[in-house]
Batch of 3 targets.
Target 1
Amino acid sequence: MAGTRKGTYKITNWRQYNESLVQRGSITYWFSDEVLAQWHHANEQSKVGHPFVYSDTAIECLLSIRELFRLPYRQTEGLARSLVRLMEVEVEIPDYTSLAKRAATLGVSLDVSRHTGPIDVVVDSTGLKVFGEGEWKMRTHGKSKRRTWRKLHLTVNPETQEIEAEVLTENSGHDADQVEGMLDQVTGPIHRFHGDGSYDPWKVRETLTKRGIAQIIPPRHDAKIKRHGNTKGPSLPRDQAIRDIRRLGRRGWKEKIGYHRRSLSETAMYRIKCCFGHWLKNRNLENQRTEARLRSKILNRFTRLGLPQFVWN
């Protein structure tokens, strides 16, 4: 009995995509002339104590190098010293303690491409390890109170595959609690919101309705209609989804409404973990948030350098 042949795909822009992969590791791409021109701080801040010597741009450049090559702070300082000598650039490099302290308060923009008109967003979260015993010890002796992880919440534009918003929380942070903050990060109007069942709570639904955003969210399996047909007021999107699921089945509803587009958020999380690892290097939450933010910004720059284009065979 002949088996079915699994579908395959072919990259049609391999030469351009290959060049974009090479460019990701180019030091001159990160140590650009614009960065070097803004290396020292303007010293106009209302900061108590000694003024900053290095600009936020310089600190962000070095922390980006740290994320790209997965380095500790000391090795980042050493690598940067070697690079400026090889490039014959006359700039001083901050020591590793300065990098760690500045990272805790550094404001990082995701540097998202401009877009006109409303966009769709896909939202999801994933876990990142922090510190604690290894997998073997955990399985052998059970969990440890020192073993913990953080939760990374991402909002992705499915058209450009850029990360529009990002939040890092402790592992107790519920997905639904981060929605309003992430929507505030997105510049411009939003047309549709794609999320899984963890975004089904009414507070999320009400926030989306108030902002005029269409909801592509599956209701819980035991969900009940809240506003019946003989009730005054417009039909609720969640109630309409329940009616469609009863009529079409959950799989049919997902296909009809385009729910599976949400998987592009999982693709972004997979790319982040492939590029930077499944763990965070810093120990305190403020530095971890800057670390996660930088990874999202770097991934956006990778995306603009070029993505593979496919045709299915």
Target 2
Amino acid sequence: MSELAPSKSELAHTFLRERIIDGRFGPGYRLVLAAIAKQLDISAVPVREAIRMLEAEGLVSYERNVGAMVAMTDEAEYFTTMQTLAIVEGAATGLACGLLGAADLARAREVNSRMAACLEEFDPHEFTALNREFHALLFGKCPNAHLLELVHRGWARLDVLRYSTPRFVPGRARESVAEHKQLLVLISDRASAWDVELAARAHRTATLDAFLARQSGQLTR
């Protein structure tokens, strides 16, 4: 039996969500029903339903006399989410490292090489997607399902918050690639799970520190 085709509201939801997540529709961007419906060649009804779904996800807000707009970002929530990810993703990576084989590490090196290539003509959206793929390869074999659920929940929360550190702090991208290489060396050399966990945690914390330093610098200008 073939799968049912997505509804018009689902298509509109996907269309809008992708543009909010990757930054094409930034915080405060007005979502005009008629314009979106015309672009998608559908009526305003499914677009309105899609916007309601996005509002439930925290990606869209309504302002009186203005209408629907892309929700503003929450820096405090980003901070706590990144702090939590540093702990749970670090632990998941540590638990998974002994289960990674040569093929897994080769794939991770290949993804990191593609990230390095991205640095020449920097594309924050592609870099972020490759970064997720890289880390998923390292923590994906974690045998603790509850811990993995927390990691995935953290990544999903970052989607909602729409923060991409490479986009806001481009200089951090080159450092990330170098830290990935160091992490792969640790795993290849069969370092202890604890050492791998600490390295993965420090990598995540360094990303948060770079973002906070950038924000602090902007506030003091």
Target 3
Amino acid sequence: MKVRVGFGLGAGTALSDAGRFGEVVDQLEDGGWDSLWMSERVNGPAPDPLIALAIAAGRTTRLKFGTSVLVVPGRNPVLLAKELATLDRLSGGRMLPAVGIGAPDPLEHQAFGVTREERAALFDEILPLLRALWRGTPVHHDGPRFHLDGVFVEPTPVQDPYDVWLGGIAPSELRRVGRLGDGWLPSFITPDDAAAARPAVEAAATAAGRHIDDEHWGALILYAPDGVPDRLREGLAKRRPDVDITEVVPDSLESLRSTLEAFVARSFSKFVVVPVFDPDDWAKAIDTIGDAVLDLQR
């Protein structure tokens, strides 16, 4: 099992200054981190993930890149397939697409031109289309929303297969991971809960005639060394009233380390650590977190 640890910039990051962003990318590249992950929130300060990752790819040769997560409903599947294929091609096969249906936010629904109710059906139609388009051959598709007659995409991704990761912890989301995903990257979940939920994903994959690689199980872990903000605490209380927030959002380096170790002990191996707040000193924060967890990579 190959343990890998990436660093994520959350949906609330304000790191949009070209100089500071470049410094963070360079430090992750040089510091032994496996990957950089960018979140998407159209109505927030975070940079657009695909644009930011393209810039990061141009500065680096080793670091991989992920989206945590890229919203699919509301996007044109052909153009999205082209963008993700191009990023993988021009980065030499370093792109790690993780996609989802988007946050339950009315403003985001407006931005993407979708209703909350239609997001899941759109996702279920688009993701198989992306895979078909990445083959580089003409696609013929007559679906409820999209109609393609001989459309194809070039260049194709370097990676073959081009694995797509999904998140989510609700029963319907676990079934979707099994039916459509190549990897599972949930958040706000304890190691025990993740281990207990994994069989549901595997059962859904088996029912769909699929298999998820043993290396494709991970977790996105928010880290709050300065305390969990009230808004996040309140939101999690509604979403997970059964858990103490420090069980899913570590508030110290020791608890962050022990959380990752607990996931590894349960055969999860791919992680993204996301600071809840932008640190005052990015370089110090990246080094401090890295010193605590990067030796887990093997």
